[in-house]
Amino acid sequence: MNDLKAQIIEQLNLQEVTPENIGNDQPLFSKEGLGLDSIDALELIVLLQQHYNIRITNPDDGPKIFHSVRSMAEYISANQTIQA
Amino acid sequence: MNSELAHITGSVIISQNKVYKDGELIWEHDPKAEISVFMRAAYDQFSGQYPKFHKMDALSKLGWLAAEVLVKDSDIATCKPEEVGLLLSNRSSSLDTDVRYFETVKEFASPALFVYTLPNIVMGEISIRHGFKGENTFFVSDSFDADLMSNYASQLMATTSLKRCLVGWVEVMEQQYEVTMFLIGDKAHGLAQPLTAKALTSLYHNK
Predict the structure, then answer these.
(1) Which terms in the Gene Ontology molecular function aspect does this entry carry (chain B) (predicted)?
(2) pLDDT of B58-106, one tens digit each?
(3) Residue A32 above 90 pLDDT?
(4) Are A14 and B54 within 8 A, CB to CB?
(5) How many angstroms from the chain centroid is the CA of residue B41?
């Protein structure tokens, strides 16, 4: 998950955040968490396409997939397994 | 038309990796540093604790930095949100970011860049930072039009609820940039002088 955290930091240009600052289960979009916004959500979708060749076909799945780094990692693992 | 209600109460100039406030050099960085390095150093010097800065494009960063310096130690906080407006201008509009965005379109269009492909976004970033909700307008012209800016700002001060207005020129294209921002107020104090095209021109060239 540390690689994924580093990719998120680079994709979203979070210059004052390190992978160690991001908890595995920390909410990505709440003020108590990383405080990401709707543009960041679009960038995370681009990240999945660029790095993992995964396209999100159902927008309703977004909040569940992007809840935390752990939920993103689980979604990536599940979809990469299916693709293999 | 220049209203007697409008006065130039402060100025900030950012040019050649130097920052001037009210005509005095207050900070300078390595003159050979690239613009991105300079802007990060200026952010660390004058602000910090505002992570969204790093996501902004160069135009927004420069305007945001100028406003940060201009507003500090001013009485702007005594005004209601709708009493503070912005009137900015430049030569290249958002072309610097438009080109960068176009480069990403060939592979994955960047949402983060797309939102900065309008020149007036810089005024939104400044307004969000300071809670300004007054009138705002962005003009594109070949050079700083002191007549237009002084007349337009005077009209805004005379005919709307504005009591303060940030007026200026925020230009950037690749490594070349030039920022001049004035604080216009409805009361004269300190080194204030009446808002006229001549006064704006004189201060604009004072770098």
Answers:
(1) acyltransferase activity
(2) 999 999 999 999 999 999 999 999 999 999 999 999 999 999 999 999 8
(3) no
(4) yes
(5) 18
Domain assignment present for residue B44? The answer is yes
Chain B: residue nearest A43 by CA? B111
Identify whether B1 is part of a domain: no
B158 lies in some domain:
yes
Q: What's the domain count of chain B?
A: 1
Considering only CB atoms, A39 lies closest to which of B40, B54, B112, namely: B112
Task: Please tell me the predicted confidence (pLDDT) of residue A82.
Answer: 53
Residues B112, A17: C-beta atoms closer than 8 Å: no
Contact A17 B51 (CB under 8 A): yes
CATH level 3 topology of A2-83:
1.10.1200
Q: What is the span of the domain harbouring residue B73?
A: 7-204
In a domain, B153, yes or no: yes
The 10 Å Cβ neighbour count of residue B159 is: 10
CATH number at residue B59: 3.40.47.10
| B108 with A42: Cβ contact below 8 A | no
Which string of DSSP letters, residue by residue, matches A22-83?
S-TT--SSSTTTT---HHHHHHHHHHHHHHH------GGGHHHHTSSHHHHHHHHHHHHHHH
ipTM above 0.85, yes or no: no
Task: Determine the pLDDT at residue B205.
Answer: 86
